[in-house]
Amino acid sequence: MGAGLLGSLGDLLSIEQRDLLRSAAQLVDSIGHNVTHAKEKRVRSEKETKRRQDARDAQSKQLVARTFPLPTETHEELLETIKAALILNRARQLNTSYNPSEFNVYIRNELKTPARLHGHSVEQHRAGNVRSLRYFMISDLTSHLAYDDGSSVEERLRLLQEKVAEAVGLAALTADERETLRLWQEALVPAADRQEGQA
Q1: Is the alpha carbon torsion for 152, 154, 160, 163 positive or negative?
Q2: Distances from the Cα of 95 to the Cαs of 33, 62, 67, in angstroms?
Q3: Which ranges in the chain belong to alpha helices (H)?
Q4: Cα–Cα distance between 174 and 9 in angstroms, integer?
Q5: At what angle do helices 75-90 and 122-146 cross, to 10 degrees?
Q6: Distance from first CA to last CA of the chain, Å, rounded?
Q7: How far apart are the C-alpha atoms of 152 and 155, rounded to whole Å?
Q8: CB within 8 Å of 25: residues ≥ 6 apart
Q9: 174 class by beta-carbon count within 10 Å (0-12 exposed, 13-18 middle, 19+ buried)
Q10: What are the backbone angles phi and psi of residue 148, rounded to the nearest 5°?
Q11: Is the dihedral of CA 109, 111, 112, 117 positive or negative?
Q12: Distances in Å between the alpha carbon of 8 and those of 2, 15, 23, 173?
């Protein structure tokens, strides 16, 4: 009968049983081949999905860097960063777990002086808070644009810009947002500069 599964068993089985056993072995072999093929196909699909998402991530980073550079070197740039965050939240494009009033309070609370400054001045601490806000904004905007809902990254940016324009069209800044910016403007001026201005 030959080697393999049917070698020693073959003598004990009828021709019909041997044919059934051979068919079963071919079926198992075919299933194994199909499973291997399906795994390879899934791996290729996962790699393609990852490659596509990596490309979207890279494109999103470039678009955010170009569209929202948000430098934070001067007091004016720090204030522009706060203003951008307030407007983006009001347009429901940033930190949407807070409604605009709550987000405004959150931004004001960043003015509070902590119990320990760890060798920094109050002004340095506050500027650091704004730089952290900038980092969070850039990260959040990049993730928002990179999200794959079937539309292109550019289309998601265009929609985001439309929502921001809508929010600004209703009010460039609300009274509460203007007050928050005023408080931040006062807080970012070093104490020595404030005393010189009063003299």
Answers
A1: negative
A2: 49, 21, 19
A3: 5-9, 15-67, 75-90, 100-109, 122-146, 153-170, 175-188, 191-198
A4: 87
A5: 40
A6: 111
A7: 5
A8: 5
A9: middle
A10: -95, 95
A11: positive
A12: 8, 14, 18, 88
Tokens standing for residue 103: 């987000």
What is the percentage of the chain residues whose pLDDT exceeds 70?
90
Tokens of 45: 């699909």
Residue 178 has pLDDT above 90, yes or no: yes
Q: Quick check: 64 pLDDT over 90? A: yes
* CA atoms in the 13 A half-sphere facing the CB of 148: 10
Span 69-92, pLDDT tens digits: 888 899 999 999 999 999 999 999
Tokens linked to 193: 């500069």
Residue 68 backbone phi and psi in degrees, to 5:
-125, 65
Using CA atoms, how far apart are residues 62 and 178, in angstroms rounded to an integer? Answer: 31
Query: 165 near 87, Cβ under 8 Å?
Result: no
Among 141, 140, 164, residue whose Cα is nearest residue 90:
164
Task: Identify residue 180 by its one-letter amino acid code.
Answer: T
The pTM of this model reads 0.74
Asked whether the beta carbons of 181 and 173 are under 8 A apart, the reply is yes
User: If you search the block for the tokens 């998402």, which residue do you land on?
Assistant: 53
Q: How far apart are CA 58 and CA 142, in angstroms?
A: 9
